[in-house]
UniProtKB/TrEMBL annotation:
<dbReference type="InterPro" id="IPR023631">
    <property type="entry name" value="Amidase_dom"/>
</dbReference>
<feature type="region of interest" description="Disordered">
    <location>
        <begin position="165"/>
        <end position="191"/>
    </location>
</feature>
<feature type="domain" description="Amidase">
    <location>
        <begin position="58"/>
        <end position="478"/>
    </location>
</feature>
<dbReference type="InterPro" id="IPR036928">
    <property type="entry name" value="AS_sf"/>
</dbReference>
<dbReference type="Pfam" id="PF01425">
    <property type="entry name" value="Amidase"/>
</dbReference>
<protein>
    <submittedName>
        <fullName>Amidase</fullName>
    </submittedName>
</protein>
């Protein structure tokens, strides 16, 4: 265990038996078993009624759950040593009649790419462990201003998958496990955020995505994950990969809680934001699906050839639920855009933006991608190529002017694959089986998508439906996803 900054600790080997036990005054009302799976509204109701438990009690309860379960899951990489103190202050505010909003006193988790004052922001990499972040990312300040409590930072695929290591593994945090089965795919790169929410370690988490990093782990761990339109949420203070695709996003166990988070996360505008004042819970009402025109792919076109899609039994059931709730299902053809130049463009973006971030970030062992690669070689040796993607990124030679022109053409092509069927068939949204990997094209387009649990496989692992649409269609997507979720009731709890 190393001491970093004034009174701040982090754990190199992440040994839970060494986690500091913070003292707290006696809590009059114990937090009952099962509270770990309560919704935000249920938690707020408990904390607001006479005789209910406090936020301090809830934080204590979840900290103990982390200490008990997470040595196996390895979803949490660092506890916030100020969480209990913050909870006490928020309890006092509530007692004084001051409630900041629906997230008042609610614990949240943050992916380890999001700068958090007094805590490490390392993307799971030892090379980025040093002086704690000097301030919060604006997104974190927005959440705190609404009363949310940063409970911990979450483990992730190291460097958001750009080191070239297995999903959910980082040198700092180890291998995150899927709480539904330790050998199941956990997804990446927001692995810890999804696994921890699924395991009841916190009700809410913030993930971040370039391509699939929210949607994939949310689907595989059986929780709800929203990847917003690129630019909707503030990205300052988040370790970057590509300005063309990066976005933070909320993860929770229900669509309503995701919408509450999105309200808090978009509370203030920034130069990066395309948002307007929207209450993302407004359309989450009974009969939200009635009359909604929802497209679903029955064929796809790739390289000019039309091929049929065979629905899984699980996805066929999803369509049945949607239709039973009054949705108008429209079969569509989904064109697959040409992604042949995508990897080259993305890796070139990562090289420029990661180098720029490291150069500006103070107190870290490395200041550039070249130094990062050398750090890893010095620490882990050169006998095995344990950072193939980092080396490919560092070898990129694409010039910025050529890259921007190519990006614009690529993004427009990918956007048209979503826009065309929506316009042609006057659709409110499109739904697909998560297993079709539709999230890839949605991410390249910079468009929003949300994954919702749809049941389980024969092996008991979560399945998911993926709803997506055109730019800034989040209110409609949330409404459709909520309507499906409430009718399907398909989410399952892991047998930990």
């Amino acid at each position: 265990m190393f001491g970093i900054g004034a009174g701040v600790s982090f754990f190199v080997n992440y040994s839970h038996k060494n986690l500091p036990v913070q003292s707290s005054p006696a809590i009059s009302t114990p937090v009952p078993a099962g509270t770990e799976y309560a919704s935000v509204r249920e938690l707020a109701e408990q904390m607001s009624r006479p005789g209910g438990f406090t936020s301090e009690g809830l934080v204590t309860y979840l900290q103990e759950r982390i200490r008990t379960l997470d040595p196996q899951l390895r979803s949490v990489i660092e506890l916030n040593p100020q969480a209990l103190e913050t909870a006490r202050a928020l309890d006092q505010e509530r007692a004084n009649g001051q409630v900041r909003g629906p997230l008042h006193g609610i614990p949240i988790l943050l992916k380890d790419t999001i700068e958090t004052q007094g805590m490490q922001t390392s993307a799971g990499a030892f090379a980025l462990v040093g002086a704690p972040a000097g301030k919060n990312a604006p997104l974190v300040d927005y959440l705190i201003s609404q009363g949310a409590i940063v409970l911990a930072k979450t483990n992730m695929t190291e460097l958001a998958g750009f080191r070239g290591t297995p999903d959910g593994w980082s040198s700092r945090g180890g291998q995150t496990r899927n709480p539904h089965h330790p050998d199941a795919d956990v997804g990446g790169s927001s692995s810890g955020s999804a696994a921890a929410v699924a395991a009841g370690l916190a009700p809410l988490a913030v993930g971040a995505e370039t391509n699939g990093s929210i949607i994939v782990p949310a689907a595989l761990n059986g929780v709800v994950g929203l990847k917003p339109s690129v630019g909707l949420l503030d990205r300052d203070g988040i370790i970057p990969a590509s300005q063309h695709q990066d976005t933070p996003g909320p993860m929770a166990r229900s669509v309503f809680d995701v919408a509450l988070m999105l309200n808090a996360m978009s509370a203030r505008k920034s130069h990066d934001s395309a948002s307007v004042e929207v209450d993302y819970t407004k359309l989450l009402v009974p009969d939200a699906l009635k009359g909604k025109r929802i497209g679903y792919p029955v064929t796809f076109t790739a390289n000019g050839e039309v091929q049929a899609l065979e629905n899984s039994a699980q996805f066929s059931k999803t369509l049945e639920v949607l239709e039973a709730q009054g949705a108008v299902l429209v079969p569509i053809n989904l064109r697959i855009a040409d992604a042949s130049g995508y990897e080259k463009l993305l890796l070139s973006d990562v090289k420029e933006e990661l180098n720029g971030y490291l150069a500006k970030r103070t107190g870290l062992p490395v200041k550039s991608l070249t130094e990062l690669i050398k750090f890893n070689e010095d620490r882990d040796g050169k006998d095995t190529d344990h950072q193939p993607d980092l080396k490919k990124i560092n070898d990129s030679t694409l010039d910025p002017a050529s890259r921007e022109t190519a990006w614009n053409e690529l993004i427009q092509d990918f956007r048209s694959t979503v826009d065309e069927p929506i316009k042609t068939h006057t659709l409110d949204a499109i739904v697909s089986d998560f297993d079709t990997n539709s999230y890839f094209g949605v991410a390249v387009a910079g468009y929003p998508g949300i994954t919702v649990p749809s049941g389980t496989t024969e092996d008991g692992l979560p399945t998911a439906a993926h709803f997506f649409g055109t730019r800034l269609s989040e209110p409609t997507l949330l409404a459709v996803a909520h309507g499906y979720e409430q009718a399907a009731q398909a989410a399952t709890k892991p047998e930990l």
